[in-house]
Amino acid sequence: MRPFLRLAPLAIASVLLVAAGCGSNDPAPPTSPAGDATGEGEVATTPDGSAAATPEDRLAAAPAATIAAGSARTTFVATVVDMGGPGSGAVTFGGEGEIDFENQQASSRSDLSNLLRHGGVDDVDGEMESVVDGAVSYVRSPFFATMVGAPTPWVRIDPAALESVTGMDMTRLSGLTSNDPKAQLAFLAGVVEGSVEEVGAGEVRGTPTTRLRARVDLRKAVEDTGAMTDRRAFEQFVASLGGGELAVEVDLDDDDRVRQLAYEHRLPGGGGGHQRIQLEYFDFGADVAISIPPDDQVTDLADLLGAGG
Question: Is 7 domain-assigned?
């Protein structure tokens, strides 16, 4: 398979996952009980004598605290390493977007030119725009439209419709169906008890933060996350991250909202490559307006695959 044909689905999937980077409408279940903050059986307290929140408490509360803001703007950077095999190098791409937590919608804009050049494609428009509406995504990408033979600017990706189409390579496209707007923060429900570590003070876009590190058990995330629009899609998302454990680094502000989330996961296919994702959340409560593309500008990916089969 030509390198860019392997890179393109990964790029589309990465952007969709980042665009959908919001949590569930319900708080994530606690990842661990309140811990002993002193190590000597004495629970830490605040100046007024009340119990202080442990790092575990704060991380457990973070998805709900972030969602409670109603909306946010985002940026992301994704770095893909050794996509073409060991020693094939690294490539970075990124973008920006908005999230409407209340309506489970998101949008993003990115530039995949670096990724495409890394795959040997120099003369293709690398701009991409995506819109997530619940479990359905819309992608506007000249490269992707050409690749799948879409006659319209936008391609609609509906997991339910894709499942009914035979002859589809689910290994290559599994990331495309993992676009539930609850996925990106919901997997924090799988934090391994006792793994949360406070590593010091940080700063994201001028906002002071507390930086935490933890391990996430992805199977536990699937088991402990109940309020999902599409549980099967979330399971596919978790499978695309490797299905085992991964390390996460989270910056929380004083209101326990996620300001930055970073994690690394292996690439599907067994080639030994990996990808690092870093997201920032800011402008909480911003007035965001996410527009769904009109029907006359949209082609359904399931129809294209069905026609091709």
Answer: yes
Q: Which domain holds residue 28?
A: 3-34+46-308
Residue 40 lies in a domain: no
Residue 41 placed within a domain:
no
Name residues whose C-beta falls within 8 Å of residue 129's C-beta, 6 or more positions apart in sequence.
107, 108, 109, 110, 139, 140, 141
**Is residue 200 pLDDT above 90, yes or no?**
yes
Phi and psi torsions of 2, nearest 5° = -65, 145
Give residue-wise pLDDT tens across range 254-283: 999 999 999 888 776 666 677 888 989 999
CA–CA distance, 96 with 91 (Å, rounded to integer) = 18
Check residue 246 and give its pLDDT.
Answer: 85
**Per-residue tokens: 16:** 């969709």
- On whether the CB atoms of residues 291 and 131 are closer than 8 A, the answer is yes
Q: Report the number of distinct structural domains present in the chain.
A: 1
CATH number at residue 132: 2.50.20.20
